[in-house]
Each structure stands twice: as C-alpha cells, then as structure tokens.
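Slide 14.
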Amino acid sequence: MFEYLLKPVDAEELSLVLARLHGEMDKRRAELRDAERLRRQYEENLPVLRGMFYTRLLDGSLRADQVYDRAARYEMALAGEQWGASLIHVGKMGSEVDELVFLALQSLFSRHFELQGCKIHTMIYKDHLAVIAAFLQPVSIYAFLNELERVRRLAESETRLRLTVGAGKLVAHPWELSVSARGRAARWITGFYSAPEEPFISETSSRSRTGRLRFTKATNKTSSAL
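Slide 15: predicted structure.
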C-alpha cells in the first residue's frame, strides 16, 4: 500500500497523493530500466570476463578459494579430475603478432581436438595460443601430448606455419594451472624434449619422412613413425 486517504476526500490532497504515486512509479520504472541495462551489459561482457578468468588462472593470480566463486559468477562449470595447459608457439611471424593467425589456430584446435573425457578451452595468451584441458577422469600425459601433436600437424598442413607445442605436467585442481603453465613455457627447443616434471616439447622432426610423432611412456621419449 502506497498511501491511504480518509473520508471525506479532499481534492487537493488527492491530487498530491496521485502526484507522489506517479513520481514513485516513474522512479521504479527507471530503476528497472537501469537493472535491465546492467544485466545486458553484463551478459555482453561475459566472454571478456571469462577470458580474463582463464588468463588469471594461467598467471596464478587467483587464490584457490576464489576460483569456483568466480566461475559461478561468470556462469562457468569447472569440472575435471585433472587439468593441463599447453602453449602453441608460431614461428616466423616477425616482430608483429598477427591476431588473425591466432584466431585461425584457435578455431582449428577447438574443432579438431578430440580426446575422450577431455574438454578444452583455447585462448590467445602472451603471444601464444593456449590450450587449457579439463579431464573428466585421470589420464596419461602421453594421451594429451599425442592428441596435441596430431592437431598440430593438421594445423601446420592447413596454415603452412611452423608450430611448436609445449605442455606442462597435469595438475589436480584448476587453480594449479599456473604450475602447468610455468612448466610448458619454461623452455622452447627445436626437436623433441621430454623429462619428468619438465615441459614436453613437440615439433616436426626434419629426419622424419612423415613428421608423425608418438610419445611413449616406456622410454619417456618421443618416437618418429617412419
């Protein structure tokens, strides 16, 4: 109830009450419009906010107690028994970073990466393409590396670019992705590299006739299929 009047009703008093009621209704309509505008702005900026969230995960600037709260705020489902991060480096691009190249690679990896029980998010991160992987069940790092290598070869054939993939060790929680990120970014080399607790590097071998690689757990090294 906004206001009440006692009989007999005075015309002047009634006019004042109606004027106040009209003003209150206008105020509430304006508040609803403002709330709707803010809601639309929030929804329009959700992709940007989610991108910033993933960047902060890789940077390690989110505390463990903040991660799921922020994810819920940005309407993101973070489900995974294991997490991993990979960087794809593009060679021979000169001093200027071509965002269109990264967008094309982002599309390629998003469309062609297929590993059962794994969901990925791709993004541009510090002049590289980053692949964040969430594994719904524990997997071997080698399965992840082999699929990265398969898509890398496909991307190279389609874009004619020289690509190098670095991947850090798998971690148990999303807030530990910065550990995986530091591992994969720590060292870029030509050829192949694989060692416990250190980054895994993959690049087509000039000695391989097919350029096909396999990461094998038994030897902890990569092997070329000739």
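Speaker note: Residues 11-59 form the longest helix (49 residues).
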